[in-house]
Amino acid sequence: MAPRVTIEEKRKRMLEIFHESSQVYTLKELEKIGPKQKGIVSQTVKDVVQALVDDNLCHCEKIGSANYYWSFPSESAIHRKARKEKLQKEIHTLEHKQAELRAAVEQAQLGREQTEERRGLVEELAEVEAVWAKQREEMKVFGECDPVVMAGRKRAAVVAKDAANRWTDNVFIMQSWVRDKFNMDVADFNKHFGVPADLDNL
Q1: Of 62, 51, 64, 67, nearest in space to 15 by CA
Q2: How many CA atoms lie within 13 A of 82 on its CB side?
Q3: What is the mean pLDDT of the segment spanning 57-67?
Q4: Cα 41 to chain centroid, rounded
Q5: Residue-wise pLDDT tens digits, 134-144
């Protein structure tokens, strides 16, 4: 049993067909040449060629009703050279950025050398932060009595009371309208719509 050919090997062999011949082919021609010359199964030729086109390693041009494919050795070299130059530019940019970051780190470390004074100040800061955190927890306990919170709750209570009275007035208006329009007793209205008999403004 012949070893299975990987997709990368198929791509390499398909490029060899183009580069060795320097010819332009249709897909049908490649499906005939591929199995004979390079052992590429004809059913996979289309996918292999399309992968090469997608990676800009092969050109495709529609002329009339047929697609024509080609790839010349010089183009592959040009493509690799352009990619190399692009990668070199990226490397240069990253090296420059790395140098800037190292300089920033060195600048940030100035005056932060580990001395006894600095160590003492760091410990003192940790103690102050611990006290501050504890006091914040204690403040939460007394938060309910905060004058700002109480004032906000009073304002919210006034708004809620006004809204409740507005809806109570709306119910009274509806009661009067139904009584006049349908000659329904208020007690029947209350019973039918679940309105408490002692409903009144706050």
Answers
A1: 51
A2: 8
A3: 87
A4: 41
A5: 888 877 777 66
Q: Cβ-count burial of 166 within 10 angstroms (0-12 exposed, 13-18 middle, 19+ buried)?
A: exposed
Residue type, 6: T
The Cα 70–Cα 19 span in angstroms is 9
Q: Are 24 and 70 in contact (CB under 8 A)?
A: yes
Query: How far apart are the C-alpha atoms of 71 and 77, rounded to whole Å?
Result: 11
Encoded tokens for 32: 């005939």
- Candidates 7, 114, 111, 118; CA nearest to 52 is 7
CA 84, distance to chain mean position in Å, is 31
- Residue pLDDT, tens place only, 157-192: 888 888 888 888 888 888 888 888 888 888 888 888
